[in-house]
User: What shape does this take?
Amino acid sequence: MKKRMSPSIWKMVLKIFAILFTVVFWYSMADSCIEYILDRNDFYYNKADIKRSCDYYYYDKNFGGIQELFRLYDMDEPEFDLYREAVKGFEDYQSFRMYQKAAQAGLNGAEEQAEEYKEKVLENAENCRFEMNQKDLDSYVDNIS
Assistant: This one.
């Protein structure tokens, strides 16, 4: 015959497992919290980091990425005007193309909006302040003509 363990031993074993589980749980929670607190400053960007990211996006012609950075960090400093001009020119060109396609589809008022954005694209190319942007802005004008 098998000898059965007494109920008090089962209670003790369950209590030990519960205590071990609780200790491991709270240890992992504390470790995660400490790691989060120590690493949270990795997500803070200073102007040099933002400028580096803008350069990366600018040379990759990812103007949407630059626009996201401007929205996230609300950068109004003059040192970002180069990127702001490039984004504005690209946005106007994309808006022109969108309204042009809408006009071809027969949407009401799309032709007027397309003309408005065409004028903005031409104006952007004429009033370009940065030589680095001139090539892109001129290519937009060539594409709309």
In short: The two ends are 98 Å apart (CA to CA).
